[in-house]
Write a structure and sequence with these properties.
801 residues; alpha+beta; 24 helices; 26 strands; 17% strand
Length: 801
Amino acid sequence: MKSFLSDLRHAWRAALKTPVLSTVAVVTISLGIGANSAIFSLLQGSLSRSSFQNPGSLIFLFNRFPSLDDGPASFPDFMEWRRQSSAFTGITAYVLTRPAFMGRGEPRRIAGSLISEDYFRVFGIGARIGRVFAVGDHRDGAPPVCVISDSFWRRQYQSDPGVLGRTIVLDGVSNSIVGVLQPGTPSFSYPGKTDVWMPLEPRAPSRERGTNYLSVVGRLRQGVALVAARAEIDTIQSRINAEFPDNQHGMTLRPLMQVLFGNTQRTLWVLLAAAGGIILIACANLANLLLARSAERAREFAVRQAFGADRGQILRQLLSEGLLLPAIGGTFGLALAIYSGDFLIAVAPEGMRLPERIQLDWAMAAFSLGLILPVALISGLVPAIRGSRIQLNAALRASAHHLTGSSRSMAARHRFVIAEIALATILLTGSFLTLESLWRLVHSDPGFDSAKLLTMQISLATNRYANPNQQTEFFERVLPKVRALPGVLAAGAITDLPIGDGGTTGDFVIQGRAKPAHGKEIFARKEIVTPGYFQAMKIPLIAGRFFTDRDRANGPKVVIISQRMAKQFWPGENPIGRRLDLGLGKEDEWEEIVGVAGDVKAEGLDMPPAITGYLCANQYPSSAMTVVVRTAIDPLSLAAAARSAVFSIDNQQPISDLSSMEQVLRQSVSEPRSIAYLLSAFAGIALLLAGIGVYGLVAYSVALRTREIGIRMALGAGRGAVLHSILNSGMKLLMIGLGIGLAAGAGLMQLLRDLLFGVSAIDPVAFLSVGVTLALSSLLACYIPARRAASIDPMRALRND
């Protein structure tokens, strides 16, 4: 230990003797470790946000249809799985809701969940005060009860322990609060904070087979493998399919963690890989710097050997120096990770479950320490081995130039710089491809005009608007009031806003054509819209007409189809006047096609236009619709007026998700935007580090060749020739590293091609941009020392030597 501390003191003095080199090394390592620690903290925090008890045994059970792998379940199917299964200790179900809550001030929607019996037992959730649901709470006709979250209890009731037994009105129904759950109770509501839980069974939205809306989760019995549980559920579903052949479907079982974090974790793993590239560049950079310093100290090591120091002592000394700088850099990197946390969380995808802030904990500290040791070994081992291999007599006889400029030593430094350039090329390739993909995604045509469009969701309380005529009347009263507001050009409503979450998809039948066999059903998106909706969204009319107020409930049923639907099912024909059954009305109730509307990317900007059938809200009333308002001014400036228009009809009706359509579109591309921005930040760091590496190598080479350059200039070589010679040597390294990096980048981006939109993984524009960027940065890094070399005074250079 004493000798180790002595080596560290010596390493510290050596670092102080070369402050510029040491500072560059510390900054390099700080950037590398800081980037990796920050991304690790987000990943670790994201996973820890699950908070589920023994999450590995929790399994989601999904319906599987030909066009949908992970579909919700119907209430009857769920009950059969629970009754017949033995592979699970319990199977439960939930459906997320947003009940209207009337507290202080305006009515508002809160995050709620209808849960089946055994939900709290399956998830291992207990109450902080009071109790969770008893068996009797799930029986039909039971008094309405609920439990609330700890955060809702603190926020709404100021942590009052007397909250038990109080009444809370949700969707117009009085519910007795029977318990407050433990802090940190996991939930599935975005952003992960359910406020209230209610029993499902007494208020199930539907008990019809084939009406699929439930999310089903089971806890595997100890010792039962997932493959065995899947086989059992498949057998149970086969029996159900045989009994109800009109509702046949398969089953998919997925672990909870895969369902919760499948997409967003991919983002963090990609970013962690990018941060790993930075740490490798940092290692190469540091190794190059230490190699140069150990070469410069060859005479010192030779003298120490002459006085009795053995090779092991010199090796330990160099390894100590290789450990000291990464340790200092790692400390600064840890601070950088903490202080950059707010930025990373701010640019993270909207739906990602993240910690509220990045803070130093044992996991982050252990990860950073785990990085420092490999960095020290990787970056310090080669210089230490080379530095300890000193030929004593040759070292004492040779000049400094011969020692530091050996071909083997320079070849090693060249390899490190080539590796840096190759890694920077890979990161830059990913950055340019994702940025180009993001640009194409953001500028893709959604099928409507998103500018100056206000949206607000209205879900009517079914206890006060149970009659379909009441639902129609409400929106028929609200929309004229909204249209009358100053600055409003048009207004309408739709059940599921394009690009937003949700959407009803199902099969349909075309009159005069045979109903497809099971497994070959025709599926379409089904939307209910009011007259004026298409005009408000500026969706073009391709043929026929739009809905009008003359389309009433007692008149002929009508439908408008999307252009893609018309082309697919009536190619080269006029579909106007044809009839189909979308399946939302009575059995064998046909809707006549009266119009063809332009295609809309309803399911996302990165998805093709949906095959869509639009029904008229006057004929098919809906209790939940999103109102869209086309304005001549800033749409958000009319938010308060639009809210007042709704409250003038019903002051107890809550409004949710009031935002502009452009905000909705921005949120829909949050994941690709985050990947592109963060990869660009990492690529920028990689470019900086690679530039430092190239500059350091060329500057060091110029210092070694001062005498040679002086002789050449004395013999008549011009400054241009010297400048060209230095630049040429640097550009050769660039071309080798660039070639390796582009080849590797093309291969790696093939694995990530599902992250790209409208861009090939080997897009020539992106590859050309990478080459130009690296060439310019390397040219700059080479030009500074080359210009210094071209300015050398030959006589002074020869005298100094």
